[in-house]
């Protein structure tokens, strides 16, 4: 509904301030901001935005402030960085996002070190991985930003082969069970009968012990 209203013809071309804070947005629809050329203040703080990949700021040439605090942003990719860099007057706020400091963060860190658009950029810190937690983004070097190593091809092949072998063993086991289903059923019946006989004997002895008359009768019978 919000996207439809913002994209409806020329009705909002003169809009200057757009407040969309605290709306639980996970993402913004593609081209949702393309018909707001007069926008000067955009507030998207306190949502759940995980990415800005599909959002275009290209037409917001008069934008003065962009609030993205308290979202779920993990990294800003090259396309987004280029569009933000092209906004001549915009002040960008990125505090309190769970930044993931791995190899995908390299371009964003380089951009942060060069740009003056991000307000309070010295406060931005890593949230993940654990070894990088609370480290300032501006203090990171490319050597600090790595991703988990990919398994070598030989090891990947070994895991694939192991999976195939385990699947084959499981199939053979199920086939054996299917072919011996009658024998297994008979074995289960035998176990059931044995358990029933045992329980009946136990129940009989319990009745004798519980009733003194049956106990005396049993003793006299023994005599």
Secondary structure elements and pairings:
Blueprint: H1 2-6, E1 17-19, E2 41-43, E3 65-67, H2 78-85, E4 91-93, E5 99-100, H3 106-114, E6 118-119, E7 126-128, H4 153-179, H5 181-210, H6 212-222
Protein name: Trophoblast glycoprotein
Organism: Echinops telfairi (Lesser hedgehog tenrec)
Explain this structure to me?
This protein is α/β, with parallel strands linked by helices and 223 residues long. 40% of the residues lie in helices and 9% in strands. It is built from 6 helices and 7 strands, in the order αβββαββαββααα. It has a 5-stranded parallel beta sheet with strand order 1-2-3-4-6, with no helix packed on it. The radius of gyration is 35 Å and the shape is elongated.
Descriptive terms for the model:
223 residues; single chain; 7 strands; 40% helix; elongated; 5-stranded parallel β-sheet; alpha/beta; two-stranded parallel ribbon
Order of helices and strands: HEEEHEEHEEHHH
Helix content: 40-55%
Report the β-strand fraction as a percent range.
5-15%
- What is the number of beta strands? 7
